[in-house]
Amino acid sequence: MSTGVTGPTRASIPEKTLRTDRWWLYPLTTFVVFTAFVIYATWRAFSGTHYFVEPYLSPFYSPCLGDCVEGSSDFGQPFGWFPLSSALIILIFPLGFRMSCYYYRKAYYRSFWLSPPACGVAEPHGGYSGESRFPLILNNIHRYFWYAAVVVALILTYDTVLAFGPMQGESDGIHMGLGTLIFLVNIAFIWLYTLSCHSCRHVVGGRLRHFSKHPVRYRLWTWVSRMNGDHSKYAWLSLFSVAIADLYVYLLSTGAIEDLRFF
Questions:
Q1: Which is nearest to 163 in space by CA: 191, 186, 192?
Q2: What is the separation, in whole angstroms, between the first and last Cα of the chain?
Q3: Three-state DSSP class for 92?
Q4: What is the pLDDT of residues 141-196, one digit of tens each?
Q5: Residue 174 covered by a domain
Q6: How far apart are CA 74 and CA 157, in angstroms?
Q7: Cα 170–chain centre separation
Q8: Which of 5, 121, 136, 236 could form a disulfide bond with 131, CB atoms 3.0-4.6 angstroms apart?
Q9: Distance between CA 238 and CA 182 in Å, rounded?
Q10: How many CB atoms lie within 10 A of CB 223?
Q11: Is residue 9 part of a domain?
């Protein structure tokens, strides 16, 4: 049985869509950009090298809990026996948070699965079971990935503080370089993305019958609700910032560039 805009309960229109605008531009752009990020992140996650240059630790490898290079493990190496890249131990949590994110669902449903590719455009699939079956049913644990994402964000905040530290061989004191600024921008976008999440909105103000009896939670709920309107923007900005932060560390580690120090 036909589905989507060609279903039996819809108007009988032979065209796949009557839209005359460039509706395909959004899903195509999302497909290209997101695919590029996935390829880059996969390469960096499996490489297991060039992820630490004092005082910068790549956000892809933080916290480094496996067999890590000297100086990169601030919380020990409980998985030192792990035979693969240390990034694979921790990346499942931020990756699970993003892949189950409400905005990212819309992005990859439209761009990768074409379900549907745009409003008013027919789906190419013969049927759709929603998120009631494997693997899409796993998206329902998004709230639990949010808790893990908060922990990861706290650890990345700690890494950002360490980025103000001196390089090896330098005297004690606060130092700042271009890498420090990149880490600051990255952690700001990560917190904006994490705290503007729908799950955060539910955690701070969900299931309350009377907001008047919970003024603090109501204020937090209002704040998160306001941020939630820009959740998609923060999703993309944090995606770019985390890749740029990792790339900067990689370029420093390989000797391709030197850190621009301000003081």
A1: 186
A2: 68
A3: helix
A4: 898 999 999 999 999 999 999 999 866 556 567 888 999 999 999 999 999 999 99
A5: yes
A6: 13
A7: 34
A8: 136
A9: 12
A10: 15
A11: no
Q: How far apart are CA 211 and CA 163, in angstroms?
A: 41
pLDDT score for 133: 77
pLDDT of 256 above 90: yes
> Please, which contacts does 41-50 make with residues 24 or more away whose CB atoms are closer than 8 Å?
41/91, 41/243, 44/87, 44/246, 44/250, 45/85, 45/87, 45/88, 45/91, 46/84, 46/85, 46/87, 46/88, 47/85, 48/84, 48/85, 48/86, 48/87, 49/253, 50/249, 50/250, 50/253, 50/254
Q: Report how far residue 69's alpha carbon sits from residue 54's, in angstroms, rounded to the nearest whole number.
A: 11
Which CA distances in Å does 221 have to 136, 170, 228?
Answer: 28, 45, 10
Look up tokens 């917190």; give the residue: 191
Within a domain: 109: yes
Query: Residue 34 sits in which domain range?
Result: 27-254
**CB 151, CB 65: distance < 8 Å:** no
Domain contains 6: no
Q: Model confidence over 106-127: pLDDT tens digits? A: 999 899 988 888 888 877 777 6
